[in-house]
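As described in the Methods, two query proteins were run sequentially through the folding procedure within a single session, without resetting any intermediate state between them. The first query and its resulting structure tokens are shown here.
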Amino acid sequence: MPNTQRILLTGVTGYVGGRLHEQLHAEGYQLRCLARRPEHLSHLEDQQTQIVKGDVLEPDSLKDAMVDIDTAFYLVHSMGSTGDFQDQDRQAALNFATAAKQAGVRRIIYLGGLGDTSQKLSAHLHSRHEVGKVLAESGVQVIELRAAVILGSGSLSFELIRALVERLPIMITPKWVTVSTQPIAIEDVIGYLKQSIALDNNEDHAIYEIGGTDITSYEGLMREYARQHGNRLFIIHVPVLTPRLSSLWLGLVTPVYARVGRKLIDSIKHPTVIRDDRAQKDFDIQPLGITQAIKRALANEDRKMANTRWSDALSSSGYLPSWGGVKFGNRLIDSRCRFVKLSTEQAFDPIRKIGGKTGWYAWNSLWHIRGFLDLLVGGVGVRRGRKHSIDIAIGDTLDFWRVEAYEPGKLLRLAAEMKVPGRAWLEFEVTEKDDGTEVRQTALFDPIGLFGRLYWYALYPVHQIVFSAMLRNICHAAKQNAQMPAKRD
């Protein structure tokens, strides 16, 4: 039976928000999703889900989004931001809460971070707590859930643990891997968020600490993952390893790149365990322990069912490039094409598989070197891979690119999220011709000032080699795939 209560969701491009939308949609709620780039959520729009353009840092864009809203979920953070994320988080929360109050929203539900306020918190955790206060100061009732490590297929912490255990059977680890934490399964997080909609609580600002049944550490999580996955694991502790060095280490061997890594480590160097157990009394949830949580996450990973991943969140990239964008100078273009005697679908087949395990069809070693250099300066690197080996959706990440436009069998446009002095795109387009298909590959760059132009021209010889080989090999792969016999059902 449809639920007529209208819910506003933020952060739907993120890990938790994507899962929450799926669950609320299945239960019949009328949903409105706020997004800076609505096209990234266009595939979700239907009779239950409305997508509206808005940015929590632009107050005027929030007014229409709040109309007729009963409950608003605030699942926004600036952890991947390259700027002052504390100021951004504070201003975003103030804008959101003010708009909610003016529109008569009944309740804001906010997912923050678990941490002992009697200790000196990291900048990230302090900001998460401050956001809860800012939201509540508006006069709208706030239900704040505080969680530590979230375990689920595709979550930041789970991908970190999985990558470390599978790639490093012998680990030299810093002290933070032994700090106590109380992980929670993603299923339980979603359960708490859903039950918060109708929670019988009249406090102006109700804070609930949520977690699973076990208190452990990152070392304990790694050992449990290794046990269930059948990996051998040897851990050697060292007394000193700075957050910066630790974050670079994480970036080299896990999907967690340096900028997010530093904030993550700062947040977990102090214990994050539940000190107030009233969530167990007010919510009808029996949380899982780490054994069950990891078992479920592993099952979903093995079946490739990680529907959302932390790295697909737009906030993880640090900035939002856009086609056309801001003109920083004369656009520099490298465009080339080849003709193949194939259908457009056949010609496009290798393009839709690009990135991840497939690679970039030429000079993959150079792509990985570029990713390594990107990590050293706090960029995303290439370890994000891709969500699915074949399927693509707007907003997906492909290594250090993000899908900005996609038309199956016709067009794929990728926006660069590596550190560059400007904005860059890579586009593939296939066009039907009289007796075959034209495959066009175009690299575009909007440089920032003189340094941006010098960057382009310095790499121009490399681009000539890499891009020409890439297009040639894409066409060769298309011909080979076309010659393969069709699989029988």
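Immediately afterward, the second query was submitted; its sequence and tokens are:
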Amino acid sequence: MSNEFKPMKFGCGRYVQAPGALEIVGREAAMLKSKKALIVGGKQALDSVGAKMEESLKQAGVEPYFYTMTSDCTYETLDYLQNTLIPQQKADLVIGSGGGKVVDMAKASGKCSGLPVMNVPTSVATFNCWSAMSVMYTPDHKPIDRIWHASEIDAVVIDTQVIANAPVKLFASGMADAFAKYIETGLMDESYTVNNTPAGMYTSKVMAGTTNEIILNRGEKAYRDCVAHQVTDDLDACVFANVATTAIAAAVNYSNHSLIHSGNGKGATFAHALYYACKAKYTEETSNWLHGEIVGLGCQASMYAYERGEFETKNFARFMKAINQPMSLKDLGLDTSDKGLKELVDCMMVVWGKRPEAHWPIIYDALQRIKE
């Protein structure tokens, strides 16, 4: 019976996006009634923003304790933070600062400890700083499952100057990843209209389409602005699209259990399956490739699977090339022989639970188009 009243988790308590926003981290922590905050951060992130966060927190009367995360988002690290460090430090708030795996760990350790969570991302390579979910990995860097949190996080603070100062590779990866909610799931299919589609799914379609429109129209300029470390209207728009509209599109769809299975027989959603299969099967070969870079390549394959028109498909590929994304499986360092391709498809078929057998030839045919 309780499953009939499942809450929709498609927001966050407070969202701040502006240049210089690090200054208000302390204010946001104080609003969450914090006196002692555990900051979970990557080394580079803490070297970059740790001092400003510490100053802001102390000015607001919040004592910070910094934990430098050197692992992936693993259950071993979660156990240490939840059962040892958080009780030891008497922390009443968890703040994540860094990339996707760091903010995922902040969410996991905070939510599993019953504490509020604030994320202060130093890149927008994924929308993980917002989502109510953490992807978990083994100690040898292989993804294993996900933790779906019971509630949204409490605050996201994005300093766009920090984002502009980060390597452009991270910014470009976030734009590539953001396309998945519209392309990978088939929401772009014109047959899904306001009159024949569940309201949640249609809302996701509109939000995901907005993400694509913003990034395809403003992303190349935003990419160049990031190279120049300049915060501009275009960069600001694409940061918002990478994080906010993407996260809402995903969460509304997840909450309604409405991920697309297209009626045209092409419902083999697989851009993320390509990422997880790569990390499971080709862990070492793809160690230097980011989540969004692999997902973006999977989106290119999805365009073929959903039989999009030649102009649309080529325009998307042109954009991805312009922001320096991998354009083939060969670029990723994968075995593109027929045997290697079949093994990759086999892995994609089971990486997050077994898929219908009808998906195998669809995935195989699409990957043939991006193998070299």
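The domain at 2-165 is CATH 3.40.50.1970 (Rossmann fold). We note this only descriptively and draw no conclusion about the first query from it.
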